[in-house]
Write a structure and sequence with these properties.
Blueprint (H helix, E strand, L loop, with lengths): L1 H19 L9 E5 L2 E6 L4 E3 L2 E5 L11 E5 L4 E5 L4 E5 L4 E4 L4 E3 L3 E3 L2 E5 H7 L3 E6 L5 E6 L7 H20 L32 E6 L2 H13 L5 E4 L1 H6 L1 H9 L3 E5 L7 H16 L5 E4 L11 E4 L7 H6 L5 E5 L4 H9 L3 E3 L9
Parallel strand pairs: 1-13, 14-15, 14-19, 14-20, 15-16, 16-17, 17-18
Antiparallel strand pairs: 1-2, 3-4, 4-11, 5-6, 6-7, 7-8, 8-9, 10-11, 12-13
Helix pairs in contact: 6-7
Amino acid sequence: MKKRRVFCALLALVLCVSLCTPILADGDILFVAVNDSIPLTLSALPYESSSGIYVPYTAFDASPGGVIPAYNAQAQTFVLFTRQRRLVFDLAEGTVTDQDGNVKTVSTTFRGGMLYVPLVYCASFFGLKVTLLKSENGYPILRFTTGSEVYDDSLFVEKAESLIRYRIEQMNTPEPDRNSSSGQTDTPKNPEQLADPEPEQPPATVYLAFTNAGTMAENAALLEEYALRGTFFLTAAEINADPALVRALYAAGHILGVTVPEDCETVAASLLEANDALCRALNFKTLFALLPFWQQEGIVDFAVLTRPQEPVSAEFAAQQSETAQLLVLSENASQALATLHTANASIELLRETTKLP
């Protein structure tokens, strides 16, 4: 009986070690799977420490089981939440607080400037199971499962192999040479007539900010259609009038900030009032504020984003490939999002740490 207990303990240890060993591959590419799909590819890999397996926080951008991540570098917090549950990591203190106010000591770490969080702790808190798998060609797969998956791990790897191979081929395929597509080359008689081909214009980078609480619900629904998250700025009056909207935006993973009306004469006090209203609605305050430059004097408690004096149109922003653009939307955003999508613009999430010209 004693030998049997020892054997079982050794077997458990082997299984634990096999789970905790990082799966590395050439190119440092991590495929993040949720149930039977692979919605995300990362260039940062999991790693094992004495405390367990750690993964880049961006792995939760795949929204496994509806879990949404929100990282605030300036406030040194990282939040994982669903509509029912929440984990708030205090990165400076090394603690985590759940939705009931329970506090635990849970370590996070940084590698190469990337925040890493404990995989098993985070996943299990939200009822997720995790496995680290390996593709046929050795690429690591981090798989979250919710109980709704169809394939077991081995069959999933088999089914996913063609998709992984396709994505790797796409990453390794150089851009086609437009001049050689016809199979012909024109040789000028005079070598001095040689001219460099015009470089292909890279896609524009656009950051979206939303104002006007009256259109925020429909704009949030539009963002969901495009699988995007946005940044919403509300006044104290808007938050007090519709705290349910604020909670819905936060639960959907959007970033919240505060602002004031353009004719506001007490800007600093109004921002603090808006933050107090936000705290009453969410038990959370923000550091992010949106203000035109003439309202910014004396504002020291917030990371202030300057609202453009002249509104930027989606058409203009989509054409600016060299400089990132801030697009402030206060009306229905369907046309703007369609324009950016058609132009293949890169729509990035606006944070208080975002650097804009």
